Amino acid sequence: MTVLQTEKPLLRVLAGESVRPLPFWLMRQAGRYLPEYRAVRKQTKDFLSLCLTPDLATEVTLQPIRRYHPDAAILFADILLIPFGMGQKLAFVEGEGPVLEPIRRSEDLGKLDVSRVDEVLAPVMQTVRNLRRELPADVALIGFAGAPWTVATYMVEGGSSRNFEHTKAWAYGDENGFRQLMEKLVDSTSHYLLAQIEAGAEVIQLFDTWAGALPEFAFRRFCIEPTRRIVSRVRARYPHVPIMGFPRGAGMMLADYISETGVDGVSLDPFVPAHWAAEWLQPTCILQGNLDPMMLVTGGQAMQAEIERILGALGGSRYIFNLGHGILPQTPPEHVAELAEIVRSWRG
């Protein structure tokens, strides 16, 4: 099935059509803010087990679809499954987040085995197949992966970071060695996304959460170039599958990211001015975003006014409503229902 043959609103927008009501989905729409998610999470020993148990991962992916009927479901997984699949030690620690055994020099790269990824992440593909069977006929399925730069920061730092000092020290001081790590990530990520499409994913999104940490020369080298190569490989086999990018914090580099990577569209973080994006980005690609997740926590008139402001700037065409980053755990579920109603009722 090609995008042009579908009645799914999100895929129609990604094919360039103008659709009313506007399609929407929300990053991290499955997660800790939902009581039913927390109930499922208690059935697993850790977060990694939840990601790799197809029946449970399918269930939590479907939970927000049942509540809010957004126009897309996004596969429940994690961007760090790729390094885990290659053999890097990974744990998710309550209150701390992901913890990895750091890889900080070329000599450590021998610990990574790209050939293991298919077998280790086979449960993810089963989740994708489950979802294609169980999703409503009008809801698209989004597959995803972390972009190489962002995944590399976790692999090198050993977890989250503010300054990325170890990653930048390696990338700037031993570029050839760091490129070897990026090569492994380009290869494994491309293969992983192709497998998701083969299993049934209809759209792909690449999350480059820490793209904004890079100065211009490094942004081109470590964000744009690896993404361009992944897009090229995916499109060579599946030219009709839309590819979205999310280079968070890219700012004015968004235009170059769009033109040089070849993505079909970009997600906008909350710091991208909507009217600027409408003038400089929307003529060339599909846009998605960019409500501040804290507005969803706040709710009420403030949230409604901000949603309507964003829709007024971007909602004419070639647009999918979303947040500017993931739903926060303290978000009241009823505020998500309120958001869904506002977006559905907006006609412009």
Structure commentary:
The protein is α/β, with parallel strands linked by helices and 348 residues long. It has a single domain, classed as TIM Barrel (Alpha-Beta Barrel). The chain is built from 16 helices and 9 strands. Strands 1-4-5-6-7-8-9 form a 7-stranded parallel β-sheet. A two-stranded antiparallel sheet has the order 2-3. The longest helix is centred in the middle third of the chain and has 25 residues. The chain starts with 8 loop residues before the first helix and ends with a helix.
Short note summarizing the structure:
This protein has 348 residues and is of the alpha/beta class. The chain is built from 16 helices and nine strands.
Output the helix-strand order: HHHHEHEEHHEHHHEHEHEHEHHEH
Biggest sheet strand order reads: 1-4-5-6-7-8-9
CATH topology: TIM Barrel
Shape: globular
Question: How do the helices and strands line up, and which of them pair or pack?
Answer:
Blueprint lengths: L8 H6 L20 H7 L5 H5 L2 H15 L3 E3 L6 H6 L3 E4 L3 E4 L16 H4 L1 H13 L5 E7 L1 H10 L7 H9 L1 H25 L3 E6 L7 H22 L5 E5 L6 H8 L3 E4 L5 H7 L5 E6 L1 H6 L1 H15 L4 E5 L9 H13 L3
Parallel strand pairs: 1-4, 4-5, 5-6, 6-7, 7-8, 8-9
Antiparallel strand pairs: 2-3
